[in-house]
Fold this protein.
Amino acid sequence: LLSSLLTVNDASFNDLGLSQLYMVSLHFQLDFPSQVFPLAHMQSELLAAFKSQEATPSELQRDVAASLTRIGWNHSFEYETPEGISLDMAQPETKSAIEVDGPYHYLKCNGRRPTENGRTKFKSRVLCKLGWTIVQIPYFEWGALLDAAAQDTYLLTKLRSFGV
């Protein structure tokens, strides 16, 4: 299967497809460092497509960032790792990050707590392999907080539980 990728070129994919292949190539490099990724010849095109997918911060992200500022957790907003991965909020010097996960990061589960989708799980896995500590803030937990004091307490507790 992987050997069939050797004949693929960037004209076979749109930017979204190339962007997704970049994450697969990064995963491949991290999990199989002695192997050559079949699309290594396209690495610069994959990275360019990945970086072209602009992050669009949400109001939810801005609310969490404001709360982090209130509790004194200094951070970079929409930080880009050296590998090109966008993090909602990060402290690069400690490789600690906050990822605010809205509804599109989850699968709906009839009456049960939503579960993360594959794309979100995959991004977290790659970031952890790169040495990052990821603290995820689910929209349904954040939305249940009634005021700024509750939000700040929630974040302090969450950060402490991750040792951040």
Q: What stands out?
A: The mean pLDDT is 87. The two ends are 41 Å apart (CA to CA). The helical segments are 15-31, 43-52, 59-70, 118-129, 139-142, 148-161.
